[in-house]
Amino acid sequence: MRVFEAIADAVVAHGVDTVFGLLGDANMYLVADLVERHGVRFVAARNENAAVMMADGYARTTGRCGVATVTQGPGLAVAGAALTIARQARTPLVLLAGDTPPGDPLHVQHFDQQPYALATAGTFVPVHTAGTATRDVAVAFRAARELPGPVVLNVPIDLADEPVPPHPPLPAPMVPRAPRPLNPDPADVDALAHRLRTAHRPVLLAGRGTEPAAAAIRDLADRSGALLATTLMAAGLFRGHPYDLGVAGGLSRPLTRRTLAGADLVVIFGAGLNRWTADHGALFPDAVLVAVDVDPAAIGARWPVTAGVLGDAGQTAAAVSAVLAPVDRPHWRSPALAADLAGADAFAGLDIESRPGRIDPRAFIRICAERLPRERTTVVGVGHFGGWPNLLLDSAATDRSFLAPWEFGSIGVGLPFAVGAAVGRPDRPVVAFEGDGSLLTGLGELDTLARVGAPVLLVLLDDAAYGAEVRKLAPRGVDPELARFPERDLAAVARALGVPAWTVTDEASARAAFDEVLPSTGPALLHVRIRPDVVQERF
Q1: How many CB atoms lie within 10 A of CB 489?
Q2: How far apart are CA 275 and CA 295, in angstroms?
């Protein structure tokens, strides 16, 4: 047995059945062995950065550890942005990276991969010797799950081909125990209960990762007379509750924004409170902020808070409920507010007007709200265009059905994350929103989508520009033409790469396109030519 075969055995023993990647000299025999001997599904991307994003999307959608592989040198270098996104999102992910021979510093693809991996992924695990390969794989997978976050498992090309010395049979994979929920300090519980008891207008704000604690947080809200809200990443967590304000942040809807402005206490459960969640301080200007988190380093790291509680969200909410007598706040939880929330129309008051050859993006999103299936995975890429679906479309955060990989602000994420999500959850159609500038950074992944054949509806909101830059340049007196581009027939490009596509320029063509593509059974692209002058101020 050679080292690459031992690595393949160990990877499969850790429950891996799907790998995303790009072949090269340093990983092609490993991939071939995974496919031919173990039946692993290999999803071949057209770009290493996209391959890691696909593994990230797969992990976020399934809750499993994502796995990708790239070759040495430029293969790893190209994947840097995707690794940084995964690191900031704390996605469990192992990247099997080839490396040049340590004894050949003049190799054309040589560069020092360890500091690069530490600067991007944050964790680097080398395969030390032929005899330690299996153990090194186990170290990488354990680190990815427990830290959590991406890990670069580094395999020099010459070591991968060495014979493995005799050793006992491969042990069963070690699965680390799930950590016990962290119980809060009783003094912190009493202090938080006192704050809730004496507040006049409290709000409980939940972030991504609190889905298991949703019932406990909802119970605490009912007991304390608080309103409920979520971050964008947890949108829909409390849907159906009469006092669910929806998303709190720069993309809050008007009623939510008006209500939050009056809050005097906001208790944040498991959310990375930052400038976007607080809308640069404008969202709840007069509130005392208390953060509840299992990570002490996360409390107040990106936005100042008054106090912190170290503890599991569910355990903390339940503990506070146990010591808090029910509080009635008819002035805050009023029937009028409940009626307003129930009857709120995201599109009310918008001056929507399409023009010849260009549909108002809000008109198109309104049709999406009417026509898209309720049970879906929604992916929203990065850019000005992302404001429209995030602000106006309802999406459920339960069951890992909403992905907005905005952690690093990197464009070009929508399509590869959608492919990974579709591979991970083939039972659920994927609707991905992407911009023209973003798509053109990774156009080759349309070919990947066509080959995978998954039910992904890619909605391309095309304003023939980098819309965010246009809106920032003009007020400073800089010519925005620097960020504008000629119109291209991207529907034709998609069809050339094997993806059926339709062009949308008005409401009639939008409805006609949806008639043809729904229900979603395979890849499709809607090239939506939108008005470039419609501005989403918060995106």
Answers
A1: 12
A2: 19
